Each structure stands twice: as C-alpha cells, then as structure tokens.
Request: fold
Amino acid sequence: MKKTLPLFLLCALAFLRSMAQNEPGITFTLHSAILNESRKIQVYVPSQNRSAGQVYPVLYVFDGESLFWPAIGALRFMNYSSYLPQIPEAIIVSIPNTNRERDMPVPQEITKTNGAKNFLRFLSEELVAYINKHYPANGLNVLIGHSQGGLFVTYAGTEAPERFPFVLALDAPMTVNASLLKDYRQRLEKTCSLNYFSGETVFGWGKELSHPDGCNGFFQKKIEEETHESMPYKGIYEGLKFLFREHIPVQTDMALPALQEYYDRLSQKYNCSYAIPAKLLLASAQQAINQSRKRDATDLIKYFERVYGKSQRSGDLLTKANAITKGPDNRVSFYLNHPAPSAEAIRPFLGKWKGTLYVPEGTDMDITWEIKKTGDKYIMNARIVDAFNSLSDFLLVTEKNELAWGRKHNGGGIYLSIGVLSADGLTLSGVEDLIGFEIPEGFPPFKPNRFEFKKIKDQVTPG
Reply:
C-alpha cells in the first residue's frame, strides 16, 4: 500500500467491510483461468414483466459487497416508482472483491502493473461471456465503480468503449496523479462515443474533465452533503439517470411506428436490442384513447400483448379503444405542427406581460410571461404564481392576428390559449381551453379559463 493515500484507502476498506452482508439474487462461483482463482458472483434478474424473449441491459457493479444493494434499490425505484420508468429493467451483476488492490490498483500503480489489464480480461473474456450465455442480456453493458473502482471502470470504458459504452464512475481519484490525469484526458477525447458519468464528492475530475467538441456523453455532477464513503447511494441514482437519459423519448404520445423507429435507433447506436418499455406502450395507448386515435391505440396495445403478454390493464385499454366511435380532434395536430410565426407577425406580442388566469371553481393564478426566440422558433416562457416555469409547446399568430399558444396535456390533447390584443396593444385577453382530450367518465367536464394580461415592459426582441 502506498503511503501517499493511506486515509483514502483505509476509509474505502472500512466502508466495504461495514457494508458486507448476505445479498439478494442468484449466487454462483466462476473459475477464472486469467486470474487463476474462483470468483463469487451474484446476479439480480428482474422478476416483473418477464416474458419469453425479453432481454435486458447488464449493470456490472464492482465492490459488489457494498454496492449491490444500492444498485438494486436505484434500479427498482427508477422502474417501479414512476409513471414512466427512468431507466430500463436490467440485470445487475455483483463482483465482490478478492484482491482489490491487485484488480483495481491505486492511481500510482494502475498503469504500471498488469492487475487492471488482467481484471479487464477476466471481465470481458470470461464474466461477460458467461452472463451473455446464461442470462437474457441485450448487449448493453454498464460499468459501476466507486473510488479505485471508479478509476478501473474509467480505464475499462476507454479501453473497450464498444463492449462497455456506459460508465458510471463515483469519486474516482483522477487528479491525485498528474501523469495519470493527462493520460486519461487523452483517452476520453479519443472515445467520444462513450457515455461517461463522474459523480464527485471528495475526488473525481474537478475542473480537469475535458469536453471535446461534438461529445455530449460526458457529464460531471457534484454529490453534495456526503462523504467519500456515503456518496454512492446518490451517485448511482444520478449516474443511471444520466446514462439512460434517452430511455423515454421527449414526446410520449407517439404512434407505434414512431416508437419502433426511436428504439431501433437506440439499438443501432448502442449495438444492442433496446425494447420499447412496457409502461410507455400502455401510457401511449392511453393518450391515444384520450385523443380518440383508435387505430393508434389498438396498434400499441396489441404490440404490448405480443411482446409482454396480456394483462388486466391492456385488456381494459383495448376495450376502451374498441369503444371509440368518433375521430380525433384535428386541431391538435394543426396547432402542434403549425409553422413558427414571422418576426413581423409576432412583434406586437413581444416583451414582458403580467396578469391573471381566472379558473372557474378553482384557484386563480398570477402569471408573468415573455416570448423569446430559441433557434428558429418562438417560445413563451411563463412564470406561474412565482413558483415554477412553463414553456409553450406551440406558439403562433392566427389569420385574425390573435396570439395562440399552449402546451400538451399529460393525458393527451392540448391546452389552447387564444388571446386578442387591445387597440392600444397593451392588453391581451382571451380564453384557455382543453381540446383533443376525452374527459373520463365520472369526471366533470373541463370549464375554459379566462385570462387578461398587461404589458409591463415595452421591450422588442429582435426577430
């Protein structure tokens, strides 16, 4: 053990010993010819929504005696505690230590010994091969490591980015060795395809992580109010959230062909079999039903049942879809796909406005808003009851010189506001309505809201 990092290593070892306990999942022993030893391996496989042919990403967790539980907790929470899952269901492979300093050397030694090189060979040639043969893996491998483990997963990801395209490094000691830091900055710059998350409390990259032009897969996050030993709980959650940021598309009410195209692109991008999430299929079907899109709804539900099997909810949704008798409200597509207004048309509405949205049988809301140009489109940025911001999903000027704007409703359809400008150009008044959404039985009909806004600053934004 090197004297340069005694506290760092002693704390890490104490943390590992304190967390060691019986872990869940399947336990087996794998003999490694490369390491010339037998390794205890533990595997967690999702139990929910299992169906024939379903495959999963694999999370390889180092220091498994301490990080297996946090990884399982994060995975289950992010899957089963949200309306839509933040990450896919996944297999978790726990790799407890036998000789940590040999396999995941301290920074001063990782480039001087064959320890990390042999451990990576064991991982790539023996363990991954075994998991792929015996478990329903989809080809997308994720590495999770803390401290020296964070350094090792950084090494592994830069050595084999095609095999390990997702890397989650927690408080990796990247800056404690100048030559190592320089080497790994260069490594990352050459692996722009790598999705790399660095969670940092005591160690990490600090200001030394480079972000080459065109590389958007590197991300750092400071894990506040934690110690080096306690930060993995938050770090694993934050890291998985970033690495799987594409798991759910921004638009969640797409028809089946668009969803298939989106996840086919992910499969090609990461060389894996990336499935459309079960919850997303049913949520999209529900939105299609709410918008009277019968064909889209039935396509989504039947696809779900082919892939995941029939369920009580899929059966209920199919009954509702088959009961649809009218077509969708074409105004929804009209407003969402309308071209952006010209600079001349939008000019009377530029500046800052303040007023009130009057809600029948509800709570009136004070709102301040401003229209700004982002890229090639105009967007209304509204501050509501001085508590939260809301960005418009569409904004246009009608043939009658009315300002029309709105946002998507979570269950389908859109909130549509149409305002008329006063003769002096200082007051905008009108009505907000919910269109393209079928109110479920048993709920009162939506009553349109009325609004009135006053210009508070005569400001012209260049078009």
